[in-house]
Amino acid sequence: MAPHLAPFTPPLGPQPANTHFYSPTTTTLHMKEKVFSLSGDDFTVKTVDGTEVCKCKGKVVSIKDKKKFTDMQGQEIFTLGNKMLSIHKSFHAESPTGHDFEVHGHWKMIGSRSTVTFKNAADGNAVELEVKGDWIDRSAEITWGGRQVAHISRSFFNVREMFGDKQTYFVTVAPNVDLSMIAAICVSLDERENEEK
Which pTM does this prediction carry? Predict the structure, then answer.
């Protein structure tokens, strides 16, 4: 069963709180594993009930290549690229409106650990999220000050039977959290894990 996640007040994320990237209810994103790293085809981030959240365009994130995230009308939200001069693979998301964030990779003996930093759009406070878990098994928690922001899992209710393979995972996101940022965190972790193989 999907975890119950408490809503965030004020909303949590780099995008302005009055956008459709925030949901007043717990939302589960249906993500396809490695779709980010193969052909570089464009793909759409959707919820498990089929609601489209945003689009991602571009090839594997490298020194030159970047991924552009847009809303469903094609307006750019941010561009995700490699952060230069990082010891561990890290990413910088640059928004045309200044709502940037960074995903920093950290070395860990077992599993993976990352931090995500941004200025919260709702109140202007500096935020640092922590991402911990076993990304290979697609099981991880995104937390802020010990509070769960999102849960990454291989299974969602009995959806495993519906989708039937390991090419899919699910990200359950707390109410009032920026879904476009959570999707970009997953893309960043997926890129990093595939590059390190």
Answer: 0.86
